[in-house]
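ok posting inputs for the heme C job
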Amino acid sequence: MSVTNFRYVASLGLCLLATSAFAETPGGIQDSFAQAARASSPTFSGFSTSRGERLFQSTHGGEWSCASCHTRDPRDVGAHAKTGKTIKALAPGANPQRFTSSSKVEKWFKRNCNDVLGRECTAQEKGDVLTYLMSLGK
Ligand code: HEC
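and the output
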C-alpha cells in the first residue's frame, strides 16, 4: 500500500471511530433501533409516537410504569419510585444529555424494561418510546 493510500485509509478509520464514539444523537440511536427492528421483523413499518406513549404510561402487569419514576410528563424531573432519588428529565428536548450514549441507553432500557415489563424491550418498543420522547419538544 502506498503512503498516500495508507494515510487515506487511516483517516477514514479515524472518522468512523469518531462517528461511533462521539456523534451519538437521539436521531442516530433511533436509526439503529430501526435497523434492528427491520432485521428482526420483515413487516417492520416504522415507529409510532402513540404506541410509545402507551408503553411508557401504562403498567404491564406489575407495580410500575415508566412514568412511576420518569413522571407522566417525561420533560419533568422525576424521582425513583423506590429510593426517592432525583432523576433528570428523560425527554431529549428537555435534557440534551439524554440519548447521546447508546451504551447508557441500552443499559437502562434493559434494566427498566425488566423492572416494568418483566422482560427486555424489543427494538420496535425501544424505538416507539424514543420516538414518543423525541416528539415532546422542550
Ligand atoms: C424504578 C425507577 C425507574 C423506572 C420504573 C423506569 N426508569 Fe428509566 N431510569 C431510571 C434511572 C434511575 C435511570 C438512570 C439515571 C439517570 O439517567 O438519570 C434511568 C434511565 C433511563 C434511560 C437512559 C436515557 C439516557 O440516555 O440517559 C432510559 C432510556 C430509560 N430510563 C427508559 C425507561 C423506560 C422506557 C421505562 C419503562 C419501561 C423506564 N425507564 C422505567 C429509573 C427508572
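notes: The pocket of heme C is lined by residues 64, 66, 68-70, 80-82, 87-88, 90, 98-99, 104-105, 108-109, 112-113, 115-116, 129 (CB under 6 Å). The radius of gyration is 18 Å.
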